[in-house]
Known about the structure:
about 25% strand, Glutamine Phosphoribosylpyrophosphate, subunit 1, domain 1, alpha+beta
Amino acid sequence: MCGITGVFAPGRDAARLAFFALYALQHRGQESAGIAAADGGSIRSHKEMGLLGAIFDEDILSDLSGYIAIGHTRYSTSGSSIVVNAQPLLERSELGDFAFAHNGNLTNTDELRETLSPTTVLQATSDSEVMAKLIVESKGTMLQRIEAVIARARGAYSTVLCTQDELYAFRDPWGVRPLCLGKLSDGGGYVVASESCALGTIGAQYVREIERGEIVRISAQGLESHLTPVETAEPALCTFEYIYFARPDSQLNGRSVYMARYAMGRQLAKEHPVDADVVMAVPDSAVAGGIGYAAESGLPYIEGLIKNRYIGRTFISPDQNMRARGVHLKFNPLVENLRDQRVIVVDDSIVRGTTTPRIVALLREAGAREVHLRITSPPIKHPCYLGVDMATYGELIAANYTVEEIRAKTGADSLGYLSLAGLIASVGRKRSEMCLGCFVGEYPNVPAGHQALASPV
């Protein structure tokens, strides 16, 4: 789920542009952040644990001079959440130094690690470092080395890389994680980013998605595109990007994320109507779905929970008494809107089933007479191996209980999930163009060792 960006902006402060692009992508990762900048002769980098605004100041950004920069905000899946795993990674090769940042998760990391030279020292514990080392040990030009890695790596990877005078961006042959290209309107140059919301923040115009299996090279000579063979790889954009990960003001493959979520809510109202007084959503990612449900059902939409947008992203642990209050740390109910109401609560998903019962209880404490849960995704029954820290089968509530059993565990009066067909129709893509692994257990190019895990334990 990490956020990545790359900036090539002759005559401009690329690190500063990358900083503001990353700010727009902070929702994709809050564990660590970093920026590397190149000026045509050298690469400098700074990264730390924590949020972007707490890491960078004017002095640090001033030291990252140059017209090329890449940046990263980390959400860990492979590799623990420690500073050595923060990105961008800096590497030294026969071609010179380069910086590397990656969003996704490889499924054949162990196999790739075994092919590295015995003298190679791995300082981090992430699959990202293995990819970077493969580039170091490959032969030929930087483009040829990236092509060699794409031919061998399996899984999900949207990646940015900068040398001393070039910027590269490339995407796996399945296109699991998003990556888009923008053009700076003031003075020329290009930007690549995980989501289109980052482009407008720094005055760049959306150009297009970077294609699956594509390598984009940006240099003083301009932009070049190189397509690697993808005939054996089916397109598989992660459906959870539409449901939860992406910001609602982004677009993915020409589809507005907000409108996709709005359509999910409308479809959910058609599939699971219920007698009620008001509709609300669990902020933030379910808001568009809640508005869609209200529009289709003809019921008024209200705010029922106010989210504390900062406490969930602090690195200071609450004491035991505060921890026991659980969801109260994150949400405050609007009692006046909830008292004696039959409430439909729209949320994007139920994963482990630990937070949802607390939300239902919080709404009842605030005076809600009935609580009807409506979920804008199908039940999550399978883990993810492609860049989402999704739980094991033992932890996934829908892998072990029926819908009625889940309803009882949450304490809701009723529970309805969006159908798979309804989700696909709302997203506006063909089923064959999306990864639906967490719903149906079928994954794009996941090795047999992982597929063997694809049954509840």
